[in-house]
Amino acid sequence: MRREGLMRHVATRLLGLVPTLLLLITIAFVLIRVAPGGPFDGEVTLPPEVRANLEAKYHLDEPILQQYFRYLGDVVTGDFGPSFRYPDWSVNELIARGFPASATVGGLAILIAFFVGTGIGVFAALRQNTAIDYSLMGVAMLGISVPNFVIAPLLILVLAIYAGWLPAGGWDWSWQSMVLPVLTLALPAVAYIARLTRGSLIEVLHSDYIRTARAKGLAERVVVLRHALKPALLPVISYLGPTAAVMITGSVVIERIYGIPGLGSYFVQGALNRDYTLVMGVVVFYGIIIILLNFVVDLLYAWLDPRIGYEEIR
Amino acid sequence: MSEKSSPAPSVEDAFALAMEPEDVRGRSLWTDAWHRLLKNRAALVSGVIMTLMILAVVFGPWLVPWEADFTDWDHTSAPPSLETGHWFGTDPVGRDILARTLEGGRISLLVGLIATLVSLVIGVGYGAIAGYYGGVTDRIMMRFVDVIYALPFMFFVILLMVVFGRNIILIFVAIGAVNWLDMARIVRGQTLSLKNTEFVEAAQACGVDHRSIIRRHIVPNLLGVVMVYVTLTIPQVILVESFLSFLGLGVQEPMSSWGALINDGAQDMESAPWTLVFPAAFLTVTLYCFNYLGDGMRDALDPKDHV
């Protein structure tokens, strides 16, 4: 029964993604086309014939609506088109080249954020209203308030320039070059998850069934880890979807500061250069990832909380 | 001691005491909330620091002896010192960091206020209409919010900035226009419960039209919740603006904001770390205080969170 409901739910949800994606593509398409200047307005003014040839090659001379539907058709077949500013590259190739680094940093950061964040949260919740609790939560609020573009230069200054332990930037897939970017990206999420976990665990620990468990004489460890933690983690799980989006956004800054050849840096460059296809490609690609992650998180949520049927989550 | 010195009050006295006008006056939601807020030391201290910060940013630039764009060629990249008069030091072209930080703060806080106002107007309007009319209208409007919610909105802000150039008014609008979703959701939820109350029914029975009911009866009652979220939106908005300015997409020279200053500072941090540290500290303290104050206000106005 439940499995059948799950399959039906997955199917409807996947169908529901279509309008979201369509809207995403449309907004991005309109915005980038409305932007003044085009991909071929460089420092050098091109001769009109060359320009006309280029525009014909990339179908920029067609009516805008036709271009829009051509693009939609291409995206459906998984083709993001050629890049305008990197002439030998297709957008798919650029994404394939940039994504591994971005995904590594983002994935590691999410893992750290989840485990360290919940750890700190549980630790603080069990010492509710003590000095340790207050100072941990104060530090966590600091972690939420300090933007990553402030953390990053400070970390570089202290750990790379003054102490000289780690490289200040660059990316060579060594663990040393990963530490600072991952740390910078993870810290705000660690702080947020810690506060979230603490709050919800304290609430759960006050509920009746926990009192029952304690009355039965269960060890505190069992009460917390076995009975309280799972429901307390629900808000954290539902926060993981938005976190992924925050991480992806943050990566734009992180990649710039640390000189990581990832997707975020392509996006900013592309937007500034009016590289229409590259910008669209990155937005649509990341949009799909965020939407899918939210979807997975919803399923996870329903799986963790038996009170919620798949029909209820939208 | 005191029990001995004053005779125990009789039942009549106690009754008379209880009937004193001062004592029977009920405590409103707002008095209660205010008392709870005053008890929250972190929120209180944050409020005080924030007030000082706002005063410093508003009046500071007139008190600092340096103009923000004055270049003191005798002291370039000078470290903070009392003798040169550059308390926070100078940047590589000799501009006073204190003056620039205060000036930048004006822009950052202004963006925070105005963009929040934009998101407030859109969010409250949208949420109140969806919640009040309910039914299909509500479902379509909130479905739209859900869809927008799923989009990587920061990318759209960046695109907006690229599209419309780095116009400061547009920074306000662009940031406000993507930040109203939370507000709309919360307002809708509140409106849903408000619209079934007796006073709204009474207004409907009197034949007041829907628009006036929303304006005169629903929106004023949303004030508490909205205030909390305004306090929590301001730091978000300031952050987004700094983020844009840091990427070089926000305000432009000679104007500057904390984000732009941090970006400048990060370029020179090896030779002149103070150019980074001071603007970063101002921004962080401001965000910290807004967050704590917002948290405190939410706790104060929403007692059910208290366990």
Describe this structure as you would to a colleague.
The complex is a heterodimer of chains A (314) and B (307). By secondary structure, chain A is mostly helical. Chain A has a domain at 100-276: Orthogonal Bundle (MetI-like fold), CATH 1.10.3720. Chain A is built from 12 helices and no strands. Chain A has helices at residues 2-34, 48-57, 64-76, 91-126, 131-145, 148-162, 175-205, 208-215, 220-232, 234-258, 263-273, 276-304. The longest helix of chain A has 36 residues, at 91-126. By secondary structure, chain B is mostly helical. Chain B has 15 helices and no strands. Chain B has helices spanning 2-5, 11-19, 21-24, 29-39, 41-63, 97-133, 135-149, 153-164, 168-178, 181-194, 198-205, 210-221, 223-246, 258-267, 274-301. Mean pLDDT of chain B is 77; it is low at 1-6. The A-B interface holds A 19-20, 23-24, 27-28, 31-32, 34-36, 138, 141-142, 144-147, 149-150, 152-154, 156-157, 161, 202-203, 206, 245, 248-249, 252-253, 256-257, 267-268, 271-272, 279, 282-283, 286-287, 290-291, 294, 314 and B 42, 146-148, 150-152, 154-156, 158-160, 162-163, 165, 235, 239, 242-243, 246-247, 259, 262-263, 265-266, 269-270, 273, 276, 280, 283-284, 287-288, 291-292, 295, 307.
